[in-house]
Amino acid sequence: MRKVILILTIFVFSSVSVFAVSPTDAQNKLFGGAAKYQSHIEYTYPVKKRIEGLDFLGEVWNNDHSKEAVKSPYTRVRRGFGGIADLYSLTTKFKEQDGKIYYTIYLDKRNEPFLEKKLKKRDAEVKKIVNKYKKKSKYKRTKAIYTWITRNVKYDNSLTRRSSYNAIIDKRATCAGYAHLMCLMCEEAGIPARYVDGTAGGGGHAWVIVKVKGKWYYCDPTWDAGKKKWKYFLRGSKDFKKHKVQSGTKGHKIAKKKYK
Q: Which CATH architecture does the domain made up of 116-247 adopt?
């Protein structure tokens, strides 16, 4: 995406405006509001072309595992329930004025009862599994987590289970659920991990990058699920050409070759 300075105005309940000049800055402010389950969030910013508005939206929602965003309380909610779409309904609007295009996004809270209880249940299950592996090396911890996910989680053909909660409790999830769960389990085990969004196999897809021995590698637990021999575990950029990244790897240099 072309680098542009975006003057972003965010409204969360009150009429006080907050300004941000980057996706990460907007991300942390917006996710802070979402983590408090505020009923309405709205923001507007100017763009030169409509596609820039959509690119910015994708970067804000999908690249939430940056160093700054990991600290956000919303990250915990997002990984638990598969993304902002599970918490909020989202509508967008473009408006042309004075030769500029203004892009506005409206978020309205969905009713999700017992959210905190579900998150606690999920977190307890993650710790119970990961604690078995904590004395292993980072590579062995990563492999053990990948083994657990690919053996225990089945793909959700209804496409309704998109969260780490669905993956670990229901044992069924879409690619987003697989990826969110792997990020969650890796970070519980002390292994840096990031959620990656893009395309593969002719459609939208999600996978993960993990850091082992100072290098970042791709992992796709969805495509390795149920397989005896893995094809997508700790792969480098030269071994992962079926996947096209849209967001999630910025600032993280991927190893060229698979882990050995």
A: Roll (3.10)
